[in-house]
Amino acid sequence: MKKIYLLFTLAIVNGCMNSAASNYNETATIEDGSCLYDQSYVDSAECPDVIGCMDPIADNYNPNATTIDWNSSWEDTMMGEPGCQYIGCLDETACNYNDDANDNDASLCTYNTFPGGVSASFNNYQTVNFPEGQDYYLLQPGYDYVAYESGSSSWIGFSATDAQGIPLGYGACCANSFEEAQTWYSNVAPELFISLQSYAFTSPGSYSFVASDDGCYSESFTIIVTDIPGCMDPIADNYNPNATTID
């Protein structure tokens, strides 16, 4: 007796399987959540609750959702709604760090670096000229860093130390610009937020600068300025034209 085998191939079709939907697909074999409903049906008692994200600006917004997805794996954000996905840069060192996001996309992060070619050491009374294309800010000796602008708000901060090296911990929260922060903290560092393209050194020490590309700030770049001891009298036989302080 011969055995006969029949092989059947079932096509998998994703689509809306609810016949009440305007885009019902009678050939669908897997419900993919794509169902669309007329407003009259949505308003009727026959329409089941659709769980999902109800924020139109979210990346997983569901226009058919009628109730919040409280069991969603997406963490709540300060500005967002529960159950919603907000894709953004979550690297706090990036210029566009977004604390309103809950799903990190590293490809969105942008950074700024201090331009190369600037010497890290100068003699006193020399002038440093910065490359064109960015704004530069003096953080003054003892000032360490400028922080970041985050999400829908800005946070421009800096730190400083007193004469004994104890951190002062000043910061400018939520300032919209260097100029606004300068106004708030003019008694602390009056030159801290003045944009410049060059700087003439008048005393030895450590000077920190940051570069700003349209509000995207680099890490600080430190220049060490030193005095050159020597004879400063032009008529003397041992006159040193490079001397910056009397030997």
Give a description of the structure.
The radius of gyration is 31 Å and the shape is rod-shaped. Mean pLDDT is 76; it is low at 141-167 and 169-174. It is 4% helix and 24% strand. By secondary structure, the protein is mainly beta. It is built from 2 helices and 19 strands. A hairpin with a 2-residue loop joins strand 15 and strand 16 (216-217). The strands form 7 sheets. Strands 7, 9, 13, 15, 16 and 17 form a 6-stranded mixed sheet that branches. A 3-stranded antiparallel sheet has the order 10-11-12, covered by helices on one side. The N and C termini lie far apart (117 Å).
Could you tell me the mean pLDDT?
A: 76
How many DSSP-defined strands? 19
Strand proportion, as a percent range, falls in 15-25%
Largest sheet: 6 strands, mixed
* Structural class computed from helices and strand pairing: mainly beta
Radius of gyration: 31 Å
Helical content (DSSP H or I, runs of 4+): under 10%
**Global morphology:** rod-shaped
Task: Briefly summarize what is shown.
The protein is mostly beta strands.
Annotate the secondary structure layout.
Elements lengths: L13 E2 L14 E2 L7 H4 L8 E2 L14 E2 L18 E2 L14 E2 L16 E3 L3 E3 L5 E4 L9 E3 L2 E5 L13 E3 L4 H7 L10 E2 L1 E3 L4 E9 L2 E2 L3 E6 L2 E2 L14 E2 L1
Parallel strand pairs: 1-2, 3-4, 5-6, 7-17, 18-19
Antiparallel strand pairs: 8-14, 9-13, 9-15, 10-11, 11-12, 15-16, 15-17
